[in-house]
């Protein structure tokens, strides 16, 4: 009915942006990394660049508490998300995402911590004596959402149609995002997506 679409659209947008839980790499650990801004012989990128690449990897899956994963690769060659050894409940959305380039015949092994949470997690600097490096992550599955309203019908019985525009990170479909957001409430949706 008239006036309801804006209320529902605003609530759905807020829920899509703030209530959906995502899965991300939150920490990297390696005995060969002396500090975050160092470089390692045989690795093209700096440690900081590797951490930034790990931050961009999109994961999907249901976790209950933190879990461990590993990157194990031998050079020379490219290390991609495909080289990450994950627990069975987690999947990588794009296996081709770049992590680092090994320029010499060295063996790279990095331990990773994976967590599930909402919105943002900004890690505070700490003592890195255990060779563990936190990663600032965005857990948001939906990166942006807008809504608009189309009115139709005559003056006596005007009705509204709500349109949602959703930008997602690729770890879930539009139907899954709305299903999780609406928490199984009755909702009729028309989907049109190029991805």
TrEMBL record:
Pfam families: RNA_pol_A_bac (PF01000), RNA_pol_L (PF01193). It catalyses: RNA(n) + a ribonucleoside 5'-triphosphate = RNA(n+1) + diphosphate. It is found in: Plastid. Keywords: DNA-directed RNA polymerase, Nucleotidyltransferase, Transcription, Transferase. GO terms for cellular component: DNA-directed RNA polymerase complex; plastid. Residues 1-193 form the DNA-directed RNA polymerase RpoA/D/Rpb3-type domain. Gene3D superfamilies: DNA-directed RNA polymerase, insert domain (2.170.120.12), RNA polymerase, RBP11-like subunit (3.30.1360.10). InterPro entries: DNA-dir_RNA_pol_insert, DNA-dir_RNA_pol_RpoA/D/Rpb3, RBP11-like, RNApol_insert_sf. GO terms for molecular function: DNA-directed RNA polymerase activity; protein dimerization activity. CDD domains: RNAP_alpha_NTD (cd06928). It comes from the Eukaryota. DNA-dependent RNA polymerase catalyzes the transcription of DNA into RNA using the four ribonucleoside triphosphates as substrates. Belongs to the RNA polymerase alpha chain family. This is DNA-directed RNA polymerase. It comes from Gossypium trilobum.
């Amino acid at each position: 009915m008239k006036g309801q679409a804006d209320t529902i659209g605003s609530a759905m947008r807020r829920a899509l942006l703030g209530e959906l839980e995502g899965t991300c790499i939150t920490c990297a650990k390696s005995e060969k990394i002396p500090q975050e801004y160092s470089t390692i012989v045989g690795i093209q990128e700096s440690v900081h660049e590797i951490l930034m690449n790990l931050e961009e990897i999109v994961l999907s899956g249901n976790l209950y508490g933190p879990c461990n994963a590993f990157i194990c690769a031998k050079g020379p060659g490219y290390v991609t998300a495909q080289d990450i050894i994950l627990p069975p409940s987690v999947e990588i959305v794009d296996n081709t995402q770049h992590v680092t380039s090994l320029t010499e015949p060295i063996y790279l092994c990095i331990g990773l911590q994976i967590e599930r949470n909402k919105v943002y997690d900004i890690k505070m600097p700490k003592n890195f004596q255990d060779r563990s490096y936190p990663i600032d992550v965005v857990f948001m599955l939906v990166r942006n959402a807008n809504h608009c309203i189309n009115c139709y019908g005559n003056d006596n019985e005007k009705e509204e149609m709500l349109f949602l525009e959703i930008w997602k990170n690729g770890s879930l479909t539009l139907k899954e995002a709305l299903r999780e957001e609406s928490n199984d409430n009755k909702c009729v949706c028309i989907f049109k997506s190029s991805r």
